[in-house]
Amino acid sequence: MKTRTRHVTAAALLGAALLLVPTADAAPKKASARTAQSATKKSKAAKVTEARRVAVLASGPHADAASDVLEAELNRRPARYEVVPESAVRAAASRRGVDPTQPAGAAAVASELGLSAVLVADTATVGKKQQVRITVRNGRDGKALASPAAAKPATAKLVPVAVKRQWTALERGLQKSRAPEAAPVAPTPPTPVEPEPVKPATPIAETPPPAKAPEPKTPDPEPIRKPVAAAPRKEDKAPEKQDDAVSTQQESRSAPLVEGALGLKLLGRSLRYKDDVFGVLRPYTLGKDVAGVALPGAPQFSGDVTVYPLAPFQKGALARLGLTGSIDQSFGLKSTGSTGAVSYPTTAREWQAGLRYVMPFGQAQRYGFEVTGTYGMNTFRIDAVDGERPLDLPNVEYKTAGLGLGLRATLSEKFDFNFRLGYQHPLDSGELSSDAWFPRMSAGAVTGSATLAYRLNRILDVRLKADLRRYFFKFNPEPGDPYVAGGAVDQYPGLSLQVGFRY
Question: N or C: which end of the chain has fewer CB within 10 A?
């Protein structure tokens, strides 16, 4: 009986042990599973909160406005994005000799700076459409992750509106962007450690007596260190250099196909002789005479046009070479004879044709230098009435060849200014250089104009223009000539109100 009782007790203890073992094993497994899940959640949260390094590259006439609003949108989300200065991107692109707005160039720059994405904003004018096109390029391979339809603002003030409309699509692309993978670093082989040589033991007989312990010394007081102010950190400013291809493309896009103006002009004329020996030469004034100068008052139709035929096909300097022409034609003009009793129909006309070349310069091509070569004719003719006309007033017809220089400038969002100055060489002067008047004369002419334009929209503007043409003569008379005088000045002031166009 005692033996059976022992066997039963042992069996009961063995069963209880078998039941407890699985429970003890299960507890650590549950704990480890919970630990793994929490670690996974923490790693995902770390990935979500990790900010992407993003750079903004803007070009075109409204580049500053586009860059400001894009960087503002990124800075509003500091947990998602870290903005890299545009100057750093331009400097990296210059060192590598790439275009950061293209896929290969964007990937190369992103690899050097660790960028996840590059936001490329183009505000240039394409044809007759002024637009804002924004592209998100992936930092890993430079591919376009988002490129919404281009918006069409009229002024820089509408650029922020256009950017905000596209921001939802742009942010989707930014969330897909990835930074370039870091290159694997080869492991450094361990440096072998040479064993230190074993020194032979010193014999007991030669062992020196133990040295006395040195007396403790009072430690020197530590010198007082004054805090040194940290030097202000200077940000690396790299010169912003645009790639030649980008600048050439912007230049070609901004080159117009045609530009010109039409409007009404008021004309004046004053012909004055110098050193009239016999006092028989009659001066002429068209308009109100103020101190020997005629004020503009005679109506004329005025128009000019310049066509750039190679602009649609060229992206370089030839896109700025244009064919130019202008005409001023009077209507309803009359002149009176010496007695003032008869009015004679009068024609005042000027036309010019030639070549013009414009060289833009300055930030966003706000300025331009002009060179113009022309051939033209300026006619002032008094027609006869009943077969008679005033014989004391010569009809002039100046045929000229000249060269002019000009400067155009964009003063603001609405105002443009243009100034031109030139020299005209008279090849013929009509009756004034004939044998009946002054056959041995020499002549020259200068021209000048100033124009202020107010832009109504991208194509049309309103212009106020003041101009002057001044011919000067030296007659070189000899005894026996019908008229004897030292010279003359024939000048034509004008004031125009025109509607301009640029397409």
Answer: N
